[in-house]
Amino acid sequence: MSTIKDVANLAGVSAGTVSIILNGKAAERKISSKTQERVLDAVKELNYHPNISARKLRSQYVSNNPTIALYWASDARVNLMARFLKGLLNATIQLKSNFDIIICPYKNDFLYLENGLKQRNIYNAAIIANTSISDMKYLENTVPKIPVVLFNRFSDKYCAVHVDNYKMGVESALLFSKMGHKNAAIMLAKSVYLAMDVRNKGFMETCKKSGIQILPENIIISDNTIKGGVEAAGKFIKLDNPPRALFCNSDNIALGALHVFNKKGIKVPEDVEIIAVGMSSAENTEFSNPPLTVINIPMEEMATSCIKIISDIIDHDVEKPTSVLFDTPMIIRDSCGNKYKATWK
Amino acid sequence: MSTIKDVANLAGVSAGTVSIILNGKAAERKISSKTQERVLDAVKELNYHPNISARKLRSQYVSNNPTIALYWASDARVNLMARFLKGLLNATIQLKSNFDIIICPYKNDFLYLENGLKQRNIYNAAIIANTSISDMKYLENTVPKIPVVLFNRFSDKYCAVHVDNYKMGVESALLFSKMGHKNAAIMLAKSVYLAMDVRNKGFMETCKKSGIQILPENIIISDNTIKGGVEAAGKFIKLDNPPRALFCNSDNIALGALHVFNKKGIKVPEDVEIIAVGMSSAENTEFSNPPLTVINIPMEEMATSCIKIISDIIDHDVEKPTSVLFDTPMIIRDSCGNKYKATWK
DNA sequence: CTGAAAGCGCTTACAG
DNA sequence: CTGAAAGCGCTTACAG
Fold first, then answer.
1. Which of A78, A97, B185, B213 could make an S-S bridge to B82, C-beta 3.0–4.6 Å?
2. Can you tell me which residue has its alpha carbon closest to the C1' of nucleotide C12?
């Protein structure tokens, strides 16, 4: 990286002159056009671009906002990011935008490569989202140089904003049980994320306890996309005895399944009842045909909470790791449990 | 804002000592625990947080990435942001992540309050998205201190990545005309954005030329949300003679309308044909019931293009404002024009 | 155990 | 018309 001095040397002028020209004050300071030309040529030749840190430091009238890194797995569902960012924007507006939020895409399982966590001179703090199992292992065994808040994950060691994934599975199984089901199917997003596995576990273990059978062939694995749901439903309808209860650990999958069911004349909830985990925008499941019963993960509120914790940390108001557990309310709609709507807690 | 010197003074030590303690090297340097305590107390009392710019400047082993501001209207559709960010992440990964992207939420009509454009010491360059009419006016009449790329807008004065909104409306009208329609309805997102108005104009003017009538009562205005579409459809079905051709200037609205039509037993495309402008994630319209015919705005590719232009600007490879116009292909699906699928360009 | 000083890359008031 | 120098807030090698 070349500096203003390099440019000055190449152009045969002083650094101050280069600065004046680059800041558009050449006319005002009556710099000769020849000098200007030489300087601009040198800038191009050296591919010089100014060091913003130095500029900021020097020109102090600029408010110096704390810089927050948002580590987001680049292959994670983008819809989630949208909901997250919505909450985050709300928070920054509420808190009068006192932070610079920098988006740091990372590859799952490779969080350990990120320098921002290892050095204290890049960001003031970090929010880490979508960690894989091995990313979490890395975090458990390292000491980041900056304060960290985990999004949608939990650890004793860190501040965390999370939900009870196991409970989501449990409640879905309980509702199916209440509806009298003895068999269930499950569509799973294949995933490097812990959270989804825990959901499945909660569902399956509670089914077992409640006398609901889940045959191995009724466990269908797919991508966490609408298309993935379409493919999963293709397998589902070919089953010999398709269960009349279906749990989807992501609403994308459920929307894809719904598409296929509608096309094939399979009626929801008459022929099959569906419960999904609400990860993407609430509107999508609220106005599907039929509207889907979902367990809603309040992404926006969780994001806001993240920012508030970060804000407290930066103000030195956090003594030790604190975590916030968000409730995940079951939103009963037409696809399952409508007759219990009034009584379901 | 307090500095390390303030902390040092209050604690009665030198700035160097404070730095050592704050960087976790107290043990290694055998700083007495009393001193450490005094310093940490002072940090808290002054609510000190380190100036990242100064840290970066001093510790040069940190790569000094150019900082790009992403100005995004905070009330704009979040789904759009998701698609945009997807393209942006792809680009940063492709280009080996040579940029720091800072999210700068702004309020529509108030872009002129943003300091980042007026000073050259905050960001190296900016992408501006979702400008309102008055924001555009501001941009036309000002000279930003940093390079700017407009997203989904056009101006002679700036680099821009955009689409032909008028043409979208024209092509929709032409397809309806080809299908033999003589009447059409239109559901419009009420909007501060220019782009949407231009679409409507293109549609309406071409309808007129093609002998398609749009009665005033067949122009329905709603929010650019699925719920908005639900409400608009509520009005639509109460019309005395609802047209059999419906243009929605956003796919959100179309999805909401579809929800209502399905519920009321109105068949698409038999009873009414729909064309929508595809702004949110492609999957949503691909797997609706029925799948929607859309004019797709390639948000992801446009975002990637933005980053590439920014990259060229920073490398001094852009002489004067360049703009990239993206094609918006009509994707024919079941909701309209299926019989022309093969022949439609 | 702690301090004084140099220097990161810039900008700007001042001098000539 | 242009240059030399100070200084923004930090960190670190060095001195004691």
1. A78
2. A16
Residues forming a β-bridge with B248: B187, B276
Q: Is the pLDDT of residue B62 over 80?
A: no
Q: Which pairs with CB-CB distance under 8 Å and at least 24 residues apart come from A212-215? A: A212/A173, A212/A176, A212/A177, A212/A181, A212/A182, A212/A183, A212/A184, A212/A245, A213/A182, A213/A183, A213/A184, A214/A183, A214/A184, A214/A185, A214/A186, A215/A183
Please state whether the predicted TM-score (pTM) of the whole model is above 0.85. yes
Higher pLDDT, B108 or B344: B108
- Distance in Å, alpha carbon of A211 to nearest chain B alpha carbon: 35
Chain B contact for A188 (CB, 8 A cutoff): no
Pairwise CA distance, residues A285 & A287, whole Å: 5
B161, amino acid identity: V
Q: Does A120 touch chain B (CB under 8 A)?
A: yes
Q: Using one digit for the tens of pLDDT, what is the confidence trace for A299-324?
A: 999 999 999 898 888 877 777 789 99
Q: How far is the CA of A29 from the C1' of C16 (A)?
A: 15
Q: Which domains does chain A have, with CATH numbers?
A: 4-58 (1.10.260.40), 67-163+299-326 (3.40.50.2300), 165-298+329-340 (3.40.50.2300)
Token look-up 């719904």 returns A258
